[in-house]
Write a structure and sequence with these properties.
The structure is a homodimer.
Chain A: H1 2-12, H2 16-30, H3 41-48, H4 52-65, E1 68-71, E2 75-78, H5 83-106, H6 111-128, H7 132-149, H8 153-167, H9 170-173, H10 179-197, H11 201-225
Helix pairs in contact in A: 2-4, 3-4, 5-7, 5-8, 5-10, 5-11, 6-7, 6-10, 10-11
The structure holds a DNA duplex.
DNA sequence: CGTAGTTTTGATGCATGCAAGAAGTCACTC
DNA sequence: GAGTGACTTCTTGCATGCATCAAAACTACG
């Protein structure tokens, strides 16, 4: 095993660490390792055919991102999220996306606007086809486009962290954008774009915040309904 | 040296790592290691009388916090901040503190209000005495009290990261709350508290954002004036 | 004198050994 | 049978060695 590793290191360069972190993050986010599951360094090291050292570093990073909990001298575990945290994260989401929309509106004519318009059209098609998978993907894109269009790298950075923590709760949230809300959600997207077209920062921010808020309300209601049932589906 | 370390480990438990991280962070934030300075693992290891491993972990953490930059296979360096980043961070600060003020206003009667009122009184005294040190400290406290009063742990967490990155730019920013702005700043604090007393979330948020925005404008103007001159003062 | 190729240096990235500690297990006592 | 104590096991935390690689220094050549 040692020789194999050495070889791969020689070939791949030091992309090992970043790759490893990504893999681990994906496994936690997807629920492959469910909340509460232990993540022993040695086990993961063998799993990924590296030594404990890079695994350790990756785990520390994940702890920093809020996905796992390291109990000193005991072990690392996938964090168990609380409902309260979800509410808190949605409050943050609202604020950050509102900021992004406002900044984007201030930027004048930007390519993002075309992308958003097309996104809405596609969303409508997906809604008509009742293609919830495609729809969810488009929603995700819509929000990210606005954030990245804010042209504020620090905002993007913090938003990314936030979304990682929220994506982690996707288990709970996947039931969210259910058909009943899809139409309303699209209308809200449209009004955000309208404000952007009119270069109205305040309007854009308010529209965005209203939208996120509405989604979050639907989300928490959804979570109340069937929270645990969908937990193992993704794995 | 090895035995000494072993001993200390036995005595102190595993508080070593957290302590080390704090020390390193402080050294970077204070400018002891100025922007651009290299941070070789071996050097730091000897400096703190530990091995490279814990140093490495601490450095990775600092990279994650945006304070240092790790160039693979080359080395770690104290990050050189750009002016643009400062603007970006202030935009985020405005948004997050606005959110916090709004949330706090929604919470009804809370002990934080008394703290804030006292803070303003003390600030006025400090202003009359032209005690800029005390005044800066009070401003810091004011803002943190509001954020922590939001009762949103995730907000506090993200705000903390943000402020670390901003504190890092303190070198540039310290010239900010100059006497000319102190009185205006206190008035703005007062209007925030007024809105809080009236349990007016929207008003509180707007007041807070207006205040942060005004500070940030003053800050960037200050930075434009004498940015580099004060750089070594703090070290 | 400038430039390309080569060597040397110095730092990181990873693997591994060892000690310390926490948690669960088992036996022993009352 | 229940509770308490020692013990075993499993895991982390840290130290250190070695291979790798980037960049600087040096040399030779045009």
């Amino acid at each position: 095993m040692q020789e194999v590793t050495q070889l791969r290191k020689g070939i791949q360069g030091s992309a090992t660490q970043a790759t490893l972190l990504d893999k681990l993050r994906k496994l936690v986010l997807s629920g492959e390792y469910p909340p509460g599951a232990p993540l022993p360094e040695l086990f993961l090291a063998e799993e990924f055919e590296v030594s404990r050292t890079p695994v350790r570093e990756a785990l520390k990073q994940l702890e920093n991102e809020g996905l796992v909990e390291i109990r000193p001298k005991v072990g690392t575990f996938v964090r168990i999220p609380t409902r309260r945290e979800i509410v808190e994260l949605f409050q943050l989401k609202e604020s950050l996306e509102g900021l992004a929309a406002g900044l984007l509106a201030r930027r004048g004519p930007v390519p993002e606007l075309e992308i958003l318009k097309r996104n809405i059209e596609e969303s409508e098609r997906a809604e008509r086809r009742a293609d919830t998978g495609k729809y969810a993907e488009l929603v995700h894109e819509f929000h990210w486009t606005i954030v990245q269009g804010s042209d504020n790298s620090k905002l993007v950075e913090h938003y990314g962290r936030l979304m990682n923590q929220l994506a982690y709760h996707r288990i709970v949230l996947e039931t969210v954008e259910r058909p009943a809300r899809m139409r309303a959600s699209i209308r809200e997207h449209q009004s955000v774009v309208d404000a952007l077209l009119e270069k109205d920062p305040v309007g854009a921010e308010l529209a965005m915040r209203g939208h996120v808020n509405a989604s979050s309300l639907a989300a928490s209601r959804g979570a109340d309904a069937g929270s645990v049932t969908g937990a193992e589906k993704e794995a």
